[in-house]
Design brief:
Strand content: 15-25%
Distance between the termini: 58 Å
Strand order of the largest sheet: 2-1-3-4-5
Number of domains: 4
CATH superfamily of the largest domain: Histidine kinase-like ATPase, C-terminal domain
Structural class: alpha/beta
Largest sheet: 5 strands, parallel
Shape: elongated
Number of helices: 15
Length: 482
């Protein structure tokens, strides 16, 4: 049933009158409007018909033998309970006292007999419109409640006084307390880190927060919280969506511990192997058969590549855990960038690419950063740009200021990145094409590490397609003292 489609909604209408001709007229009028009709000739029959058919609306004569229309109205309203069943009474009685008595009994409208068909039809249509809206609203509400109750996430409704006014079954389980006991309690008793003030001013708008929740019984648990301010007319309330992430955090900790242990256990023997290989290649071991030198170089190159991957894993793991140690200092930005570009010239030459630095900043401009980590970001971006650029093309490093931040762009003329891959661009161990790792090498960790390092330095990294083709990676870092 389309929402607000009143004409397509057939209602069931109970028509009650002790005069047969009146029943026929009313029945014909209602049926012409596309609704179903149930007829009753007195109050007792009307009540029986109501209980059996549960009609949507009642047209009722006030003066009938036996149970009169006033009493029938009262009983129908009682039988309907919370459901709204419009009752329109018709009477030949004159005087306001009859109208007031009918309204006090629960009638929704009153018409003087003989009723003018056009007026009756107009009133009927208006009531039907409201009734259909209410029924559709009830259906939507029922569906919403069903979704809420069957949601895996906890849902809390909190009023402007920060008191819990409603919760679903999942929230009840998270809080380990029966629903009735939670209503009216301060939500901060369970979520002490919750800050409605910041949320109200947009600090957490559209963001998930990691908080600790303390149930009435048992230990605190880690939750992910989504917070929305809902406004209905003059009223405001908060909608809180809670998800238990304690198991996810436990698995993440185990994963980080595993990677850290594995990386440490690999790095020590790899360092020893590389040192031994370099000694064999040195003049101290001139007796080594010259035919072995190419094999030693291959072993050295692959061992170094493996050590680089292990170090990248360690960096990514530390950054994700917030355990990355930074050595911050103040440096001339232009000097740093020139140094980073110079360090990567050999890599650019390997791919026959022209690597150039373009600056739109003063030579005296300074940046507060960790030089090694900043260099790591730039090396990752420059090496990627060179690797994917066509021979004899240019890779640009462009430095400028924008909106009170340093903006460093690494631009290439490579194939660009497919739109379908963009959501995964900064994920670990991902490359736009599986063949890339075979053709160009690499672990798929460089961009993931660069994003973590940028975040640790208070900045961001993003991607956009370059005008005229290729890619641009944009690093934004705070100005010195920002």
């Amino acid at each position: 049933m389309p929402f607000h489609d009143f004409a397509a909604t057939a209602l069931t209408v109970l028509v009650v009158d002790d005069i047969a001709s009146t029943r026929r007229v009313l029945s014909s009028l209602v049926q012409k409007m596309g609704h179903r009709v149930i007829l009753a000739e007195d109050g007792e029959t009307a009540l029986l018909a109501y209980e059996q058919a549960k009609p949507d609306m009642v047209l009722l004569d006030l003066l009938m033998p036996g149970i009169d229309g006033f009493e029938v109205t009262r009983r129908i309203k009682n039988l309907a309970g919370n459901k709204w069943v419009p009752v329109v009474v018709l009477s030949g009685l004159e005087g306001e006292q009859h109208l007031l008595a009918a309204l006090e009994a629960g009638a929704d409208d009153f018409l003087q007999k003989p009723a003018e068909p056009a007026i009756l039809a107009s009133k009927f249509k208006n009531l039907a419109r409201v009734l259909v809206l209410q029924q559709q609203h009830a259906v939507l509400l029922s569906k919403s409640m069903a979704v809420s109750e069957n949601s895996f996430d906890g849902i809390l409704i909190v009023d402007s006084d920060e008191m819990i006014q409603g919760l679903n079954l999942a929230a009840e389980r998270l809080l380990k307390t029966e629903r009735d006991m939670m209503l009216g309690l301060q939500v901060k008793a369970f979520l002490p880190g919750l800050d409605f003030g910041k949320a109200k001013h947009g600090a957490h708008h559209g963001q998930l927060q990691q908080l600790e929740m303390q149930p009435l019984i048992g230990d605190a648990i880690a939750v992910e919280l989504g917070l929305t301010l809902v406004e209905q007319g003059n009223e405001q309330f908060w909608l809180l969506i809670l998800r238990d992430v304690s198991e996810r955090q436990r698995v993440d900790r185990l994963k980080q511990q595993f990677i850290a242990t594995l990386s440490h256990e690999l790095r020590t023997p790899l360092t020893s192997i590389i040192g031994s290989l370099k000694m064999l290649q040195s003049s101290q071991f001139a007796a080594v058969d010259e035919r072995a030198f190419p094999l030693l170089e291959i072993a050295d190159r692959n061992a170094s590549r493996l050590l680089h991957m292990v170090n990248e894993l360690l960096d990514l793991n530390k950054a994700a855990a917030g355990a990355l140690q930074l050595e911050l200092g103040v440096y001339p930005l232009l000097t740093l960038l020139a140094e980073f570009v110079e360090e990567n010239q050999g890599y650019a030459a390997k791919y026959d690419v022209d690597l150039q630095l373009y600056v739109e900043i003063d030579a005296t401009c300074e940046i507060r950063t960790d030089k090694m980590r900043f260099g790591q970001i730039m090396s990752n971006l420059i090496s990627n740009a060179c690797k994917y650029s066509p021979a004899r093309s240019e890779v640009k490093v462009i430095a400028s200021t924008a909106d009170s931040v340093w903006q460093i762009i690494v631009q290439d003329r490579g194939p660009g990145i497919a739109g379908s891959f963009l959501p995964h661009l900064f994920d670990p161990f991902t490359q736009a094409d599986a063949s890339d790792s075979r053709l160009y090498g690499g672990t798929g960790l460089g961009l993931a590490i660069s994003r973590q390092l940028c975040s640790a330095l208070g900045g961001t990294i993003s991607y956009q397609a370059a005008q005229g083709g290729g890619s641009e990676f944009i690093v934004l870092l705070p100005l010195k003292g920002a």
